Structures are given as structure tokens and as C-alpha cells.
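Take just one protein record:
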Amino acid sequence: MATNVHTDGATQFVDSEISAIKAKTDNLPSDPADESALESAIATAQGDITDIKTQTDKLNGELEAQGATTANWQSGTGTSGEAGADLCTIGSDGVRKKLLSFLISLHDLTAGANITVKMFMQINGTERKLPVKTFVIGTDTPGQWIIDKAVGIHRAIRVEVQSDNASDNGKSIGYDFMTEVM
């Protein structure tokens, strides 16, 4: 009989352990490795990383714009109706940018000529002339900074140049500017 008691006790112990294990496993979710919450968190983080990259990419500036315009700088008429001719347009209406620098090259123009650089921009719906810069060819260096400090713009800036010397008609003026998205 002693062996029966020992066996009955062992059976009861095993049965209780099996019941405990069954209770634990019966309470597990049907898919214990559900990854949807983790996938959602990863997607959110990737979106945040994309947003951060978009902002930091702006810090590199954009490719510089450069070119040259050949015009009748003395006998022509710019878009403003003033003497001279249009050189270039920087930016566009409704797009916020930082204008980091703007340079012009006057090396092809006639010695002794007075060169006037005029910029125009819409202010409250009306085009206005911004401060004018004047240079004397042969006295001032042929490469000139027109804007050498960052300035925020949200409208197009149109640049006109005028010479007081007819020999400058048909000559080329180079320009180079750098902007950054805001």
C-alpha cells in the first residue's frame, strides 16, 4: 500500500503542475509575437528621421545660380522703365529663402564708366526700388559683392544694371548668387 500512496501523491503533484502550466499557457494571446505596435513605432521614428533630414538638408544651401547677361546697359530700358537692362531675378514670389550672397562681374565693361546696380522687389503689392549701388570701372574692383550678408526674401528680387557709357552696350555682365531654403 505504501507504494500506492507514493504513486497517488506523485500523480497529484504532476496533475497540479500540469494544471498550473495549462493555466499559464491558456492565458497567452493567440499571437504572442504580434509586431504591429513595434512596426508602428518604427514607422513613426522613420517619419521623424525624414523630417529631421529635410530640415538639416536646408543647411547645406542650394546650388549657386550663376550666369551672364548681354544687354544694352546704356541705351536699354529695364523692366522698371528706367535706363539700363535687366541682369537677373533672384528667388520667386511666395517662396521663403535666405539670400546668402550676390556678386557681379563688371570686367568686360569700359574703363571710367559709372555702373549703377538697382534691385526691385514687391513690397505690399507694389514694386519698390531697393538701395542702389554705384561703381566706377577701373577704380573699383571688377568683381563686386552686391549682397554679402544673409537676408531673408519671400518675393522675387529683380536686378537691373545701368552704364553711363555707350561702349558698354552689347557687353556681358556675369553674376553669381547663393540661396538657402527657409
User: Anything to note?
Assistant: DSSP finds two helices and ten strands in the chain. The first strand starts at residue 65 and ends at 72.
